[in-house]
C-alpha cells in the first residue's frame, strides 16, 4: 500500500517539518543505542535496576501510539493534556503525539492544583492522557470539563471504575494492528507545516498567571539546532536530565536521556547520592539542572571529594545562578568542562549563554559592584534589542524605541526560537509582542530589564515588574542585590518596595547563609549598610530585614516570590 499523504517521512520529497522526524532519522543512524533510560527500583543486591528504549524501540513505540490515535479518528491539531511522569511512556507518548500531529499540552504539576486547573481550562484540550492519580483528580476537580471528551490511562489503573476506559496499551495494540493491516503507513509521520502548533508549554507562573506559550514545529527545530551548535552536542552523548521538558530535546539531538531517581518538581530536595549513582552507572556527558539542584548537589560532591570526569558540560537555567554555586559545582568537573547558564524563558529559549569560566574569571566582580548579571553573547540566530521601559502594550516597532548602548531598558528579542503567541490570551499576547512589519517579524518582550555592553554581551538587571520606582530614581533588583550578595553571611537578598505615607521605601530582605543570633544580625546589618553606602545606586537602601527562607517557585526552587516578600516586609517596616 502506498504511503498516505499524512504519513510522509521527514527528508523525502514533499516531507513535512514534523519535529518527530528527527527521532526517526536518528533511529536509522543508531538503532541499538539507548534513547531513554529510567530507574525501576533496586534489585536483591541493592543495585538500581533500569528500563530502557533503544532509539529504534522508541521510534517504533511512538509509531504505534501515533497510529492508534489516527486509527481512533483523532484529527490533526487536536489538543491533548499530558500528565504522565518522566518515564518510557512519557517519551513515547509525546513523540507519538508529534507524529500524529496532535498538540500536547504540557503543564507542570508542581504549580499547584488551582493553577493547574486554570491552565487546563484555558488550553481547552479534547484529550486527557494521564496516570491514574491524574485521571482521578481530573474527575474530582473538573479539569477540562467543558472540552475533554476522551481520557486515556497511562500505566496501571487499579480497580477504580472510572479508570477502566481506554489505556495507552490499548492505543498501542490498535496502532500496531493498523500498521500491520496497512491502514496507517509506517513510519508514521503526519505532514504538518512548520508554523503549525506542535505543543503548548505553560510558563511557571512565578511572575504572573501561568500562560500557554504556543510552540510550532519550526520553533522546536530551531531550538534543537541552536542547542546543538551552542554547546557542540553530538549524537551518541549521554544526558542526565533532571527537568522533564528539557529531556525531550535529548532524543532529538541523538543523546541518550537518563532520568535520575528524583522528584523533578522538587529539585532543591534531590538526594545527591541518587544523581551520583546515575553518573557512576552511565557516565553522562551532559547534565541539565536548576540552580537549586546544583546548590544542593555541588557541596555534597565537594565534601565527598568526588569528581565527575565524564561530563563535558553542565547546563543550568530557570533563574540567575550564584557565582558561589557555580564555583562549587565547577570543582567537580574536569577541565575544559564548565557550567553554562543559558538565558531565556518558556517563550524564547535560548536567547544568550555564558560559561562559568567567564563568570568566575571576570563578570562576577562586576556583579558584586552592582552592574547586574552577565548572561553572555546572544545566540547567533537571536536578535536582542533594548528599549525604553514601558508597562503598556506597544503595537508596532520603531527604531526610536531603542535606548543608547549601555543604558538599562527592557529586553526584547526576535528570531526563530521565539514563540508568537499565548494560547487563548490575546491581551497577554498584545502586551508581550511588538509587530515589526518593515522587517516582516515581531519582537518578544522578555519582561526583563538589562543592557548590552560595549562587547555586545547582555546583562540582566531584574524583572521589569520588580523594579522599585522611587520619586527621583528607579532601583533595579539584580543590580542592587549583587552588592549585598557579596557579603559572606548572605545566602541571597531581595529588594522590594514598601509604600508609606511619605512615599515608597526600598527594603532589602536578607536570607542569611547560616542561622544568626541577635548580635550577628546587628553586625551583618551594619556591614550591609556600609556596603550599600559605597555605591550610588544602593545608598538609599536603609531598611534591612532578615527572613529565614524566601518563598520561591516550585518548578526551579530559585525564583523569589517578591510580591509575597513585599507584603511581609510591609508588615515589618515602620
From TrEMBL:
The keyword Ligase applies. It comes from the Bacteria. The keyword Ligase applies. InterPro entries: AMP-binding_CS, AMP-dep_synth/lig_dom, ANL_N_sf, ATP-dep_AMP-bd_enzyme. Residues 31-423 form the AMP-dependent synthetase/ligase domain. Keywords: Ligase. One of its GO terms (molecular function) is ligase activity. SUPFAM superfamilies: Acetyl-CoA synthetase-like. This is Fatty acid CoA ligase family protein. It comes from Paludisphaera mucosa. The lineage of its organism: Bacteria, Pseudomonadati, Planctomycetota, Planctomycetia, Isosphaerales.
